Amino acid sequence: MLHLPTVISISLLLNILIGGFFITVYNYKKQRCYLYLGASCAVFVVAQIFACLRIVLDNTFITHYLADLCIIISPVLAIIGLQKVTHTHSRTSRHFLTLIFVSAIILLPIYAVTAGQMVTSIIIATLFMYAAYLVHKMKCAAPIQQKILSACFISHSIIMYIQSMMLAAPHITNTVLDFHQPLQAILINHIILATATALVLPFLLFVNIEEKLQRLVNHDTLTCLLNRRGFFMQGQALLKQGIAHQQSFAVVMIDIDHFKRVNDRYGHSTGDTAIKWIAQHIMAQLNDHDIAARIGGEEFALLLPDQSLYQAKETAQRLCDAIREHSLHFKGNSIDLSVSVGISSSYDANASIKTLLDQADKRLYIAKAKGRDQVVICDHQAGQMVNNTM
Ligand SMILES: Nc1nc2c(ncn2[C@@H]2O[C@H](COP(=O)(O)OP(=O)(O)OP(=O)(O)O)[C@@H](O)[C@H]2O)c(=O)[nH]1
After folding, report:
1. What ipTM was predicted for this assembly?
2. Can you name a GO cellular component term (predicted)?
């Protein structure tokens, strides 16, 4: 069996370090999830100190009542911190305050007897189950760590339920049962699991935040499509993959016609709505593996894997038709829009997103020059231009 004072000392030290780390991050980033997680570690440390005082202090109000209350408050703070990360905190914080208040009242007459410990175990077992559910629901790019954290919370919850049953057993069966050893083992497990949870949590949070930052860096906030950077990154990866499978690729450049007039006539906010409206039309034409981006003010780009030039032309044509045939209705105005499209395609193993985009841009320029609202798939070649004029 592990030596209890050693386990407690290591746990205290780790929780102080991790709590201090969270508070430092909070001071730097001002994100309240870190404050709650830091506070959770701090309260866990206080709970352990209160509980350890049993050795030298004969005051059950501090060593049992306050210790138990802190043991309940610590996971509550961790859960609120987790909810702030997952944005699921809307109304539950008030419920947690009520839970702490009700626990404080229930424990008051029973904290010095076994029932107090039992109630505390059941409350924190339930809190840990809820925390496991929150972690399980989290969208995260670190599935292994997410599973480890979930497993920590679930096993913690199970041992707390077992502890409450062991504490209740002698009273229910009316016999003297000696659970001293197993209860001590549970206490050690409880301390180890709480500390392990505090260790895995920061990693998961940083992966989560890194993911959000990546999203912000690679996506356009107005349309939620990829931005130019995201298009180049994802596009190049997709292109490489496709070349390995000898797939063809089409790159499509789309530009809204006379967009300046929309801004000048209806205002910039209507212009923004028009950009979003066009983005929705674009999304409606895409297959699962296609990628779409807003690569400039009123310029969009698509990468259509496994589509020939002519298949891409059909897709672009459908898009042109849909935009022309519908009007944008906004703030009492009915606005007619159209787009011009240039497409390039390649089977070439040396093709890059940049060269395909440059070629598509050239063809887009031709579409504009030819009168807009049309798809062009070929440069001037031998005096002939293959295009589709409306
Ligand atoms: N509302 C809004 N307008 C934007 C945004 N980004 C760029 N623009 C506007 O888009 C317009 C682009 O104008 P131009 O490049 O002259 O092109 P155009 O008027 O669309 O004409 P053609 O492309 O030649 O058909 C400019 O007026 C920009 O101010 C944006 O995010 N929101």
Report:
1. 0.97
2. plasma membrane
